Amino acid sequence: MAVVFGATSTTDEVLDGLELNGKRVLVTGVSAGLGVETARALVARGAYVVGTARDLGKARTATEHVHAAARPEGGIDLLELDLASLDSVRRCADSLVAAGLPFDAVIANAGVMACPRGSTVEGFETQFGTNHLGHFVLVNRIASLLGSGARVVSLASRGHRLADVDLEDPNFQHTIYSENSAYGRSKTANILFAVEFDRRHRANGVRATAVHPGSIETELGRHLTPEVAERFLAAATAGSTIPHEFDWKTIPQGAATSVWAAFVAPADEVGGRYCEDCNVAQVNDSPAFTDGVRSYALDPMRAQQLWALSEDLVGERF
Q1: Does position 38 have pLDDT exceeding 80, yes or no?
Q2: What is the rounded CA–CA span in Å between residue 208 and residue 136?
Q3: What CA–CA distance (Å, rounded) separates 257 from 268?
Q4: Is 183 annotated in the active site?
């Protein structure tokens, strides 16, 4: 009988009894929080992790216990990657392709949340440019390293319920900027990316899925000042008569859905889907800030349109 996991399941519980010897995993954002825990849980079961971070010094300190947890057949290496700079993304991807070593999973974990209005190096709105476009270029450039059976896990968020992508104005050039709507757009983009990547690669045995880790107190929320948090709650409850309360998770609980989607869940069940609490989420178009995925985030036509726009923006065809 299959074990049933849920909101309180941890990485160790999800991976209990699983041997990952010989598996290679790319995890972005291993300088804090979920990325570090994801790496720890994987190397403790024999996997070899390539972890990326913008600040390698910070990542080295944050992953000291990851090295200590690694089995002899596993381990972790660190690679510099600034998702807010496509030059950095391309250098990172090119070095991985040059090395020629395959990956069994890519966990696109890094990101920013509810930050003040700003731009990436190339001039894209910070959250859309970092959370979506950076990973879009990275994963597509290393797609040749993903063989049959490999999976891509795109970390999205319940925050996708705050906003659909705006294909006409992705950089807020003609609309008023809001930290929360920008975050919502970027998280919807993360889901749509998984939908389209899965469609393009599933015939070759490569699957992609998006996951919501849950509400966790990590460095991701460093821009959530009391004022921004108040606006976030207002946006989350707009149009709903249901009061919202956050069910906070620990970091090991938050990282559990990522490793579940990458190595435990049946590929055909999670491919092209959105998952939360170590389960595939149901479509839920309620205005409430609640469980489930909004239908616009799984719309295959929307996913193809975003893909085409993203290619135009980054100047590459994949």
Answers
A1: yes
A2: 12
A3: 16
A4: no
pLDDT tens digits for range 127-173: 999 999 999 999 999 999 999 999 999 999 999 999 999 999 999 99
* H helical segments located in the chain: 11-14, 33-43, 56-62, 64-69, 86-99, 126-127, 135-141, 179-201, 226-237, 251-254, 256-263, 267-270, 300-314
| 172 vs 177: CA distance, rounded Å | 6
Residue 218: CB atoms within 10 Å: 16
Report the range of poorest mean pLDDT among 96-110, 174-188, 197-211, 216-230: 216-230
Domain contains 206: yes
Classify residue 119 by its DSSP letter.
Answer: B
Q: What is the pLDDT of residue 247?
A: 74
Contact status, residue 77 vs residue 67, Cβ threshold 8 Å? no
Please give the residue range of the domain that contains residue 281: 11-313
Q: For residue 306, what is the domain's CATH number?
A: 3.40.50.720
Distance between CA atoms of 289 and 208, rounded to whole angstroms? Answer: 25
Residue that has been written with the tokens 């319920």 in this structure: 161
Q: Look up residue 221 and give its amino acid.
A: G
Tally of domains in the chain:
1
Is residue 5 one of the residues assigned to a domain?
A: no
Number of H helices, E strands in the chain: 13, 10
What confidence tier does 76 reach under pLDDT thresholds 50, 70, 90? very high
Give the number of other CB atoms < 10 A from CB of residue 254.
25
Say how far apart CA 87 and CA 80 lie, in whole Å: 12
CA–CA distance, 183 with 225 (Å, rounded to integer): 15
Give me the catalytic one of 177, 183, 274, 296: 177
pTM of the model: 0.92
Lowest-confidence range among 47-56, 62-71, 223-232? Answer: 223-232
